[in-house]
Amino acid sequence: MASGLPGLPGLLVIGGGISGLSASLEAAETGNEVYLVEREPYLGGRVAGMNRYFPKLCSPQCGLEINFRRLRQNKALRVFTLAEVEKVEGQAGDFTVTVRLNPRYVNDRCTACGECVPACPVERRNARNYGMDTTRAVYLPGEVAEPFRYTIDPLACEGAKCGRCVEVCRYGAIDLEMASSTVTLRVGRIVLATGWRPYDPALISTLEFGHFPDIVTNVMMERLAADGGPTGGELRRPSDGQPAKRVAFVQCAGSRDQNHLAYCSGVCCLASLKQATYVLERYPDASVHIFFIDIRTPGGFEIFYQRLQADPRIKFVKGKVARVLQEPGGDLMVEAEDLLAGRMFRLPVDLLVLATGMVPEAMPLPPGIKIPRDPYGFAVPSPGIWPVGLAKRPMDVQSCVRDATGGILKAIGGEG
Amino acid sequence: MKPPLFLCSGCGIGETLDLAALGEAMEREFATPAKIHPFLCGPEGRAMIEAESASAECPVVLGACSPRVNADRFPANPFAPERVNLREQVAWCQEPGAAETQAQAADYLRMGMARAAKRELPVPVETAMERTILVVGGGVTGLNAALEAARVGYPVILLEKEERLGGLARRMHRLAPRVAPYRDLEEPSIAKTVALVEANPSIRVLTSTQIESTAGEPGAFQVRTTGVGGNQEFTVGAIILATGWQPYDVTRLPKLGYGAANVITSLTLEEMAAQGRILRPSDGAKPRSVLFVLCAGSRDPEHLAHCSTVCCATSLKQGLYIREQLPDAAVYLIYRDMRTPAQGEDFYRRVQEEETIFLTRGQVTAVREIDDGDLSVTVVSSLLGEKVELTAQMVVLATGLVPAAGDVLHLKYRQGPQMPELKSGFPDSNYLCFPYETRRTGIYAAGTVRQPMDSVGCVEDAAGAVLKAIQSVTLIGQGRAVHPRVGDASFPRFFLQNCTQCKRCTEECPFGALDEDEKGTPKLNVNRCRRCGTCMGACPVRIISFADYNVDQLSAMVKKVSMPQKDDDLRILAFVCENDAYPAWDMAGLRRLRQDPGIRVIPLRCLGSFNVVLLADALSRGIDGVILMGCQSGDDYQCHFMVGSELANRRLENVKETLERLMLERERVELVNVGIGDGGRIAEITQQFAAKLRQLGPNPYRGL
User: Does CATH number 3.30.70.20 belong to domain B493-544?
Assistant: First the structure.
């Protein structure tokens, strides 16, 4: 494929979530030289933490498995995990990029046997499970992690003074002295696939997140429902471990609200519909309430919505949750309005799920990247730098892949 | 051929198995010494393998970890090594030191040796590819697709059935905002895009032209067209279907008042506004009130079950320009849910600022003509009350979007002339992770024909489809498969002398890769093939094979399974999909979940490639039961070859006869849906199956 602009052929993709991964693979399979830089020790980003995708309720691991196989066999693609872009110099067609490679403390001799884990004395907060459980300081980042290799959290690890993992590893795979290093890449184009993070629910004071343990966010709900999650897929009240059979969802928790996120996050309605199916699958006698402003299920997703509307166990209530209280017995009590019935009502629930929105990942961009952003922080294309997926606007997984695929052509073709 | 054999004693394998004994047993049977190393994927182990693989005429066999991991550590020149999964699927899920554990490992090694011996190196069939891309449809998507392809150096032929380019976008008066601050209406830009296309020397535009037939395959599609300039014939490398949408047939909506003089559609309003004459058709007067009915036909299983996605923003836009052209008119907008995703919310908020635009949630159930051409509108479930009547001087039906799909390409494929469509009527991919996964290789749908989307989405989609089109021409030209078996150089070979012309392969190929001659003999279009092996599974006379994957090879593996010593011990064959079920097995191992040691897992490219002769092979040898694990079928199918589990299931229905002939119970064969996330369920599934087999008792053929 010829570039529309003169310059270096290489392509740098920043971010290894579903957008960056797809962009890298599509570009490499079309014969381009690609460098993929990911900050975390694994690829897959946010989708690697999803239990299922809407509307097919299939596992995200299925697509990741295919993508990782594509990646492993492609020689045109070089992946750097635990890597951050430190500096970008030059201009469209000729960028010199400095990438910092943070130490993994586990080298490529690791076989993923897992012997190091029981030896490690330190527990750390598991950020992938939003702090709902812990791992040891040495851990495998996921069951289909790519690369399939252990990693050590330097903030938790006690380092050489402990060194028990080093002793038990038969393969000499652990190097607690590993230092960071840098590599310099020369590329013609940059694809920005920096993704999103969930909006901080603590900022929505009326919803009492952090005050009552049985209030969780939608991303936490994904982990609670996941087979490999902190509860092994059991849906239980975090407060006392009782089955979560009465579940309510608060839509637009932060989104469509000028005090928080003025835009619509685009996926939260579908995420809650999907999560309603988790509850009903686990507990057929459960009841679900969804408090919404508008249910937004575009295109064929509407058919999924219609299927759930036909289920009498799910009640859709147009209205806002005004207050959340805790009853003396420990139950949560939701005070909400039902706009269509014109009344306020109270509802006891076991679990309250906040459908928090998506914020463009506010990764401080390295010096040298000058990219215009809209008032919300979403990136706008600029010469040589093409944003894709969530870096650009809220969108679902399918749209991210579409955008990543097309974004490659836009970047190579010289638009922007 | 004697494949060199290496065994790894690391990661718990050496503690679970007596590798020395295994090595000796293999040497006795295959006359090739096994080399044991405690760290086979380490530099020393690798060097040891490398030294032997360079001279080997077949793959080396590695008894170590799962083929899914550490692939980059082992040399693959020219053959990828045959990986026998002694770690995840034996050492990590079986009782250490047990005789049955040892027997399982021995069988897996024997099966691996048999498979390696029957793996030939696929030789890619390279073809000279025509690079021209055909874009069908000259609307927003098609125009952008043409420009994108031309920009990266690919010639384009752009077909449009109308006289002029631009499609429905040409009829738009204004556009909803696409850039920050997402408040102001935009001037249409379609004329500019058309001019760019018409001025581009790499794009050949054929207007007033339609396709008569499309034959051939990627790299060499022969397209015949008919149009004002007469018939034409040309060859293209790949095709983008960008035929766009049509408004839903509004005559089917008499309940919503269509037929009354002052009930119009969104598109008619757009044309009126473009002429600056928003007037009532009945009397030519300026309407004092205009009411928009959203979801006119959409979100209604009796009409269009889907949401048309763009009507909310379109109606908001129209409300705003009515406000400009008719400042005194009241505008009512009755919506079911206001759908303005992402930054579209800013535009919604902008329209809410207008005092004369009333936005109300509700559902319009009836529109009736009353005096003077005015209309009475019944609205239910609104915030105004359970049921209210509103009066308007003009009603606009925001009619939904219907894909302009169907018989456009007139494909000369044995499986029919059109792109396969989903239940919704859109020729879309069924995969969230792979929106361009198509059932007609080299042909990609884009824009509103694929799914409802706005013009921003169409531009993105056009670029995505062009990239996939270029990719298909690039990969296929090298003799390699496109998604999902990207890079696979193997292809099905037909030993046609023995073909019985039963047509099963040509009927079942999920990609329409096989055509037939008059007698019904299959004719492979190799560039359409995606290497799933469905044809190989379908063939009753086993004449279809791949160089590195075939029934003979699988059958040889089945024959390597040993029979147990004790009546209580079972032999169960599990044929599993390599993309979903196989990783699920690995995950069960990773969690150290105990499995029945009588299981022997054989990965398949897809359950669609499962040939039922393997059942007879297995059961007549004394295997107690066969379980197939594949992806979900039905409307929400997961199979990346669409119909793998479904076909396997159908084939199993037909094996009753085989079982009856062998006087065996139907329960000895089972198919279950297993997804990649089902690692936690695998043990339970196999235990249940094993319990059932124990009740039936050992296969009477055991030991015969």
Answer: yes
